C-alpha cells in the first residue's frame, strides 16, 4: 500500500531537520569563533520554522492523519493527545527562540549563551516530537488505518497546499534563499 501522506510528512520532517541542524551548526561556529553572527540568516531560518512546520505541517497532521487514527486505534490516543498539545505550543516556542535571537542581536556576545540555550531546548523538543511521530504514530497508522482511510488522508495531503509547490511555493523559495545565504557546511553561501 502507498502512504503518500506519510512520505510528505517525512519529507517535511527532513526539511525541518536540515534547518535545525543548520541553526545548530551556525551557533557552534559562532561559539568556536569560526563564524560571525548573521542575524538576518538566523531570523530567516526561524521564519522558515514558523511558517512551514507550525502553519502548514502540524495542522495537516492534526486534521487528517491524527483524526483518522483516533477512530481506529485507542492505543495511540495518549500519544496523539500529547503531540496535539505540543502542536498548540509551537507558536510560544518559536516566540521564545525569536526573542532570544533578538536579545542576542541587541546585546551582542553577552546574550549568545541565552540564545544558544533557547536554540538547544527548541531543537531537542523538535527532535523528540518528530521521533515520536515517525517511530510510534506512523507504524500504528500503517497497521490500523484502512485503504479507504489512506485514500482520504492522501487526497487531503496532496490537495492541501504542499509547501514546496503551487501557491505556497514561497516556502521552497525561502528554503533556497537560506541555503544560498548560509556558509558551508550549512549551505552554499560564502
TrEMBL record:
One of its GO terms (cellular component) is plasma membrane. Residues 6-141 form the Hemerythrin-like domain. Pfam families: Hemerythrin. It comes from the Bacteria. PANTHER family: BLL2471 PROTEIN-RELATED (PTHR39966), HEMERYTHRIN-LIKE DOMAIN-CONTAINING PROTEIN (PTHR39966:SF1). This is Hemerythrin. It comes from Thauera propionica.
